[in-house]
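#onboarding

Welcome to the new folks! Below is a worked example of what a typical request in this channel looks like: someone posts a single protein sequence, and someone else replies with the predicted structure as tokens. Don't worry about understanding the tokens yet, we'll cover that in week two.

Example request:
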Amino acid sequence: MPDLIFNRPTDNYVYSGSKVRAGDNSTKLTLASRYNESVIDLCANSNIDISASTIFLNGKIVSEGGIQVGSGIYGGTITKSSNAYEIIIDPFGVDGSNSTTQDASGSVVIMGDLIVRGNTTTVYSTNVDISDVLLTLASGSTTSLRSNNAGFQLGDGYASFLYQTSNGRWRSNIGIDISGDLTVTSAVTNNSKITGNSGIDYSGNVLSLTNASQLPVTWSTFALKTSSSPGGLPASIGDVSNSWVDATGYVLSKTVINANSFIKIEFKVNYTASPEADQTLSFQVLKSITGIDGSYNTTVFSDISLGSNMGVTFNNVYYGTFIDNLANAFDATTVPVSYKLQLRRDCPNYDTISTQYGIQASSGNYISLQELFRPAPP
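Example response:
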């Protein structure tokens, strides 16, 4: 039978009741189109079955229904999504599923590197397992920017561990519980130190091998003032018996870190009491918080009737110590808290003051404030 040649313009279609085959292994069947016409047009939902091991395409594959690779448990699909500009690779999608909410089984294996150039990478998995020992963040950051606030964040930020470019340190917005040893090494000098405004809260033993020392709260700030002025009252001022008067030079104030802290107050004064019969000396400490309790309207503590009241001069040293609970009563960032020492000559109504008494001038006299930091309750 002579060869049939279909090359006339009127030959738009070839109707064949059997297969179309092109020669032997060295021959190809060439199909071409023009004017955007279809090269192969199948009717009645027929299939194209190609048993060749390799197919070469110079163009692209356009599919509305998706592409299936393999079959059964060794198959998967690449389909379009119901969302705009989104495709779905489903290694368990031979059943035709094209929704991430219906089926998330199977695995996609990438043998080479994976490069994602989008703006956001979202992972909806339960566990993320990375075999690499080093995880690098902000690899494209410049030296001048230094990736401020780069780090880790949980959820909407209720817990985070972020890098701060202003001081070159990591910052956690919650507490850190360290169960092992803590070693601090300075990169600038050979001195290891812990600095900051929050203090250190020791919940365990300070001495690791004994139970000899525990600190429930530790100091974070310390202020000290010495005074050699006497602060007492000579007889020329007049009789101020049973009245509180300010001790000259014994006033100290500071702005605390946290208004929920405690303030440890200490006084040391050399004093003279009971130079006359039935008379003693008393001390008290007053507190002032600007805008809260007026001008020293809060009595912190008092020590009453020091001395012998036996009519002889009595010289002694007074040590006053007290821990004041600030109780979060003011704005610690702007308002200072102040303390001052007062003294009083105690004597009966029928007696008068005729000799000097009170605080003696001494280089060993002092007043000190120490903040015992306590963070605000959650």
